[in-house]
Amino acid sequence: MSRQLRVKAPWWSLLAFCLLFAPVRADVPGSNAVASAHPLATEAGLAVLAAGGNAFDAAVAVSAALAVVEPYGSGIGGGGFWLLHRASDGHQVMVDGRETAPLAATVDMYLDADGNVIPKASIDGALAAGIPGVPAALEHIASRYGRLPLALSLGPAIILAEQGFPIDDAYRRMAGFRLQALRASPGASAQFLVDGELPPSGHLLRQPQLAGTLRRIAREGAAGFYRGELAEQMVSGVRAAGGIWQLDDLAQYRVVEREPVVVSYRGHRIVSAALPSSGGIVLAQALHMLESRPVEALATASRVHVLAEMMRRAYADRARYLGDSDHVEVPRQRLLSRSHAYAQARGIDPHRATPSQALATPRAGGEDTTHFSILDRDGNRVAATLSVNYPFGAAFVVPGTGVLLNDEMDDFSAKPGAANAYGLVGNAANAIEPGKRMLSSMSPTFVEAPGRVTILGTPGGSRIISMVLLGILDAIAGYAPGDIVDRGRFHHQWLPDRIEVEPGTLDTHVIEQLRDMGHEVEVRDSRYGNMQVVQWRRFGGGVSAASDPRGIGAAAVEPAD
Ligand code: GLY
Question: pTM for the complete prediction?
Fold first, then answer.
C-alpha cells in the first residue's frame, strides 16, 4: 500500500521543481532594464548601470539626460517624484522634488483687478515658474541611495549638452507648439531655435550654457544651483523678466521624503505617489471602487461606463479636497478608506451617466512631462515622473544659465472653479500660498504581485492618473509591457463632463451605447501619453521592458555581466 503511494513524480513536476528552486535565482532579476521617453536617456541610464551604478544612480543619469534631450518634458528647472524601492531591505520611499511657490507668491497673483484669471500669466514667462526641485532631488538620490558620485552620473547629460544631439520630429512638434512663447524669451530662443525659427530635423542641438550649469552641479552639488553665483544670476534674470523669485526661495528649497500610498487590491500591492501628487489617492479610490464593483465580466460599453464613472468620482474628490498636505488639511484617511469608495461605487447607475455637476461643489496632453522606469540586476527599482509642466515649461530660459524654467504654478488653482491648462479645476486646498507645493497628477507606480513586479508611469497632465489606472489593471490582468504601453486609452476627469477616447480604442457601436447612457464621448484626433514599463517575472519570463509606441522613447534590458 505504502509502496503504491510512493508514486513516481511525473517528469514535469521535477522540471517545475528545478525551475522554481534550483537554477533560477528568483530573488534577483540578474538584468538591468531602463525604459524612458528618449533613446539617449535610456542609453545614459544603461551606461551608468554598466559602470557599476545601481538603479538610483541610473535614475540620476536618466533624469539629467532627459533634461537635455527632452527639454519639452522635464528639466533641471523643473520638479518631479521619484518612487524608489531598495532591494536590500525593501525600503520604499517617494522622493518629492516638486516645485514650491515663491515666498512672494500671493493667492490672487494670476488674477486681474476684476478677479478674472489673466490668460497665460501662469503659463508663459518667468512669473509662471515655481522654485525647481530637480537639482536637489538628484543630489539627494545620489548621496543617500546611489553607489556612484553625483558627478559621474551627471556625466552623460553633460556630454549631451556640450556635444549636442540631433533633434527629432517630436522636438520640432513641441517647439512648434510653443514657438511664440519661446521666441519671447531671448534665452529660450537662442537655446532652442535657430534665428528664431524651428531648427530642421536632424539639427545638432548644443546647449553649452546648460552644460556649464550641469558641470557646476557636478562640482558643487545642489548648493551650486541653490546658492552663490548661479542662484544670484537666476534670481536677477527672473526678476528682470517680471518674476518674483528671491535668493531665499532657492536657499530654502528642500526635498521631502514621503511615504508612498499603498493599496492592496485583489492580491496585489499597488505602490504609488503621495501628496502633493493626487495620483496615489485618486488611484486608491478607483481601485477600492473596483473592488466593490468588479468590471471584468461586463460587456465593453458597460465596463467603460463603470470605469469612467469611477474616474469621474475620484477626480471630483481630487478637485474638492486635494492640495499640499504640509499646508492644508486633507481628509486622507477618509479618501483612502474602503467605506468611502464603496459608497461612491454604490452611487453608480449601471445604465446611466451621472452628470458631473450632480457630484460635488467645485470643483477639479500627453507629450509634456516625462516618465522613466528602471530595474537593476539586484532588484532595486525606480519609477519617476518629472515635469516642467506645459511643453517647454514657461518657455523662459534664464539668460546665461541654460536653465529652462517650469510653469508649474499653473498646477495651482488660480481661482476656485477656473480650469488650468489641462481643464482641471480646484479649490482652496490647492490655492497658491508661499512655499506650498502645487497639486500634481504625476503617478509613478509599482504593481507588486507574488512573483511579478511591474514599474510604470506616464506623462499626460490630467490624464496621467486614468492612464496609470488602466496600466495597473492591465498589469494585474497579466499583460506584458509591450501590450500595457500599446493598449487604447479612455479618460474621464469629472470636468469637463465627457469621456475622452483614443482613436481606434472603442467600436462605433460601443460609443453609441455610451452615448445612449448619457455620456458625451469625444474621440480624440490623436493618441496620448508616453508610458514606460519595466516588468520582472521571477519564475519564467524574466525581465522585460517597453516604451510607448506613441513616443520616440526606448526600452532596453541588458543581462548583467
Ligand atoms: N505638471 C503636471 C503635473 O504635475 O501633474
Answer: 0.94
